[in-house]
Design goal:
By secondary structure, this protein is mainly α. It has one domain. 61% of the residues lie in helices and 0% in strands. It contains 5 helices and no strands. The longest helix has 26 residues, at 3-28. The radius of gyration is 23 Å and the shape is elongated. The N and C termini lie far apart (51 Å).
């Protein structure tokens, strides 16, 4: 199943995305702003939930499929935030501002990754609840496949 490797790889990319975003934020802050960098790390920490979400969706896609819409909403929020931040980082409307290339490239790369992963979450993953009629759930045993010696005995009371 192709979904598992994608989700496991996405979990690693999300972890790298978090570290790169925090590093880019550190590059934008003045050199003496250690407290601001610590605060930025704390504020960016919820992005680590994407890494956890992708990991668990790769580990058991059927069980954690209900979290896919929540991850999709989070990706949409990240794209919206990037759309607001990129013009300011590029210095649009401020002719005296000289943008730093590295943080802008990291934010643009994160926005592209967010768009790609949102597209896969939206279009690329079939919904496990939309199975064909009569198709068993993975890992579930039907009554006809359980050996007779392992069935729980029943007693009828009159």
């Amino acid at each position: 199943m192709w979904r598992r490797p994608f989700f496991f790889a996405s979990s690693g990319v999300e972890l790298a995305r978090y570290l790169l975003l925090v590093g880019a934020l550190g590059a934008l802050l003045p050199s003496g702003a250690r407290d601001a960098l610590t605060l930025a790390r704390v504020l960016a920490a919820p992005n680590l939930l994407f890494a956890a979400a992708f990991y668990f969706m790769g580990r058991d896609p059927d069980r954690y499929a209900s979290y896919r819409p929540l991850a999709l909403v989070g990706k949409a929020a990240s794209l919206f935030a990037a759309a607001l931040a990129l013009p300011a980082l590029l210095g649009l409307g401020r002719p005296e501002y000289e943008p730093k290339a590295w943080p802008v490239a990291v934010l643009a790369g994160a926005a592209l990754w967010d768009a790609a992963s949102a597209a896969v979450l939206l279009f690329g993953c079939p919904d496990p609840s939309a199975r064909h009629a009569g198709e068993p759930v993975a890992g579930a045993a039907s009554a006809g496949t359980v050996p007779a010696e392992s069935r729980i005995p029943t007693v009828e009371v009159e």
